[in-house]
Amino acid sequence: xxxxxxxxxxxxxxxxxxxxxxxxxxxxxxxxxxxxxxxxxxxxxxxxxxxxxxxxxxxxxxxxxxxxxxxxxxxxxxxxxxxxxxxxxxxxxxxxxxxxxxxxxxxxxxxxxxxxxxxxxxxxxxxxxxxxxxxxxxxxxxxxxxxxxxxxxxxxxxxxxxxxxxxxxxxxxxxxxxxxxxxxxxxxxxxxxxxxxxxxxxxxxxxxxxxxxxxxxxxxxxxxxxxxxxxxxxxxxxxxxxxxxxxxxxxxxxxxxxxxxxxxxxxxxxxxxxxxxxxxxxxxxxxxxxxxxxxxxxxxxxxxxxxxxxxxxxxxxxxxxxxxxxxxxxxxxxxxxxxxxxxxxxxxxxxxxxxxxxxxxxxxxxxxxxxxxxxxxxxxxxxxxxxxxxxxxxxxxxxxxxxxxxxxxxxxxxx
Length: 415
What we know:
The longest helix is centred in the last third of the chain and has 32 residues, at 267-298. The chain starts with a helix and ends in a 5-residue tail after the last helix. The chain is built from 19 helices and eight strands. Helix 8 (145-160) packs antiparallel against helix 9 and helix 11 (221-246) packs across helix 14 (267-298). Helix content is 57%, strand content 8%. Strands 1-6-7 form a three-stranded antiparallel beta sheet, with no helix packed on it. By secondary structure, the protein is mainly α. Keywords: Heme, Iron, Membrane, Metal-binding, Monooxygenase, Oxidoreductase, Transmembrane, Transmembrane helix. It is found in: Membrane.
């Protein structure tokens, strides 16, 4: 079941990444293109592709097309002719040979949402430059005691807020958690500040239109997402200007300080990389957390194994003693993905391997540590992950939660 989400994402993004193969030959289509359908004029097959379906299946669109045309087929998605690949070996080849046999490319409509300098869109030297900056931030953060304490304190704060709740909407909670964490670490904005709420609201609007029919009419998800991205850019640009004006760059000590003092970036590059890291740390991490919690409820044996690992870690610590890097390294069962990395690509691959993968695993591990030691939870029978093609839960992953009686002893989130 875990295989489905990354598989669909890889099929989706590979499909977008190869659209130029058809676009180049739009007037004289070569005979060796794969079979497929261009769908309706203008719309192509986008509506069928975006039709929600259970994430543990390919969905009717991919199922029918693969059955009819094979696992690699031509289509017309998001305003562009497209080759869609649902073949794992081909997808891995493409990811591993970017800039050699293939070059990443996205439909123009995606540029309006992501921005022309997004790490997702750019290639070559610009991509390497921006990715290296992001990677250096991740490397410096993941074992930094200050960051580890920030992750744990926000985890504890989140779970304290559930103390008198019988039900929670987990997706909403975890998205707020992951975005607040990244906003704090990147920009030194505290969760309780009005600006943090504004950024969260804009990101929610942004994500609703991130993968949508690219029609720029007032009120459409796409138009709202483009406007939300513009507001987010303006917010980050304003923070940059304020620091330059008030000469605060050496006082905050966050990621923005680092790139303002050490890197030679244009304002547009600075804004773009901050938004890329916010996006990666927000949506990807939150989605993986939600899927993990959902499947742990379905597989109690796995949950018990996980719980035993975290109980062993807690038993060797004093009451209330924070987690550290050495504790994380002991969470082998928690972050072990050796059994799935050959089949799935939750963090991409090749030059597109997500530089924040290690940071996401750490955040999830710390969160799970306190969750499994302090709460029991049940999912709803009618709530399950859907692919849009990104993953969303039908009811926002509504959980029935119950505090574990001895939570004050083992979990250190008691008041």
